[in-house]
Write a structure and sequence with these properties.
The chain is of the alpha/beta class. Helices cover 28% and strands 30% of the residues. A five-stranded parallel sheet has the order 3-2-4-5-6, sandwiched between helices. The chain starts with a strand and ends with a strand.
Length: 181
């Protein structure tokens, strides 16, 4: 299947502003960044988490620990995958008592976030788990809500949202489209 773009809904500058706004909200809601750990869900959540951590560090003047999380083994559809590829998970130290901000590119059904929360809890008991997403497209199947949202983009069930990030795709942009077979 290939993604057929219909419309670009976020440009590079829009993404930069969204990351900056999310970062300010994280600092405000956590009364600083001293106990904040930012963890990106592979694949595009990782570069977004690095951007957010850099922005929070710039605001607060402290280094914000960043991790990356592979949720493959926590997925509820693992049994449908023929050959799942598990990549490295790395958390920057002990998360016990920390405010963990999970970062993902798109929030859709909520299943990836549920998997990420299960994975995080296997590493310890944080004081809180918060969620930051660049795009919330609706259509939840689980009762999950993002704490920090770059942009709400209402979509129909048949539409797809594709986030492109410079670090992965060579450009920054968010597109709405559909998949062609």
């Amino acid at each position: 299947m290939t993604f057929k773009e219909r419309v670009k809904v976020m440009e590079e500058a829009d993404i930069r502003r969204a990351v900056q706004r999310i970062s300010h909200e994280i600092v405000e809601n956590n009364k600083g960044a001293g106990d904040v750990v930012v963890v990106g869900i592979r694949t595009r959540g990782v570069p977004l988490s690095l951007r957010i951590a850099r922005a929070v560090s710039g605001i607060e003047g402290v280094e914000v620990p960043v991790g990356r999380l592979d949720i493959t083994l926590y997925r509820d559809d693992l049994h449908t995958m023929s050959q799942p590829v598990v990549k490295e998970t790395h958390l920057p130290g002990d998360i016990e008592g920390k405010n963990v901000v999970i970062v993902d590119d798109v929030l859709y059904t909520g299943r990836s976030v549920r998997s990420a929360m299960d994975a995080i809890i296997d590493f310890g008991r944080p004081a809180s788990i918060q969620l930051a997403v660049l795009v919330d497209r609706g259509h939840r199947e689980l009762p999950i809500r993002a704490d920090y949202v770059g942009k709400n983009i209402p979509t129909s069930e048949g539409e797809k949202v594709r986030v492109a990030l410079e670090e992965v795709d060579g450009e920054d942009g968010v597109y709405i489209g559909y998949e062609e077979t």
